[in-house]
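Please, structure for the following, as tokens.
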Amino acid sequence: MMLADLGEGETLSYIYYDKNTPLFKLLANNISADGKTAEYKGRTINLWEGTSAQGKEGKYWVIEVNPRLEEKNYMQELYTGITRAQEASLIMAPPSVKTLSLKAV
């Protein structure tokens, strides 16, 4: 749905922490030489590792959570990811994560 809602020239952004997740592997064959973007179904997806998205904004963001971080850092990074989006964020957990704790820190 996010891809279908993108206008001409708009991109989706993806924050990842692990290159071994199913989503990253799906994009891996279409990553640009500089590693900053990937193409998927004719759309450009900006790739941001961890907190490298600080200060960036865009219409839609996909955030793949990293439950291995200490809880305080995890919540800060999740907040950073969510607040990058102008319209919506999609939070995804890798299959290895059975539950997510989103209690306030």
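The chain has one domain: 12-92. The mean pLDDT is 80.
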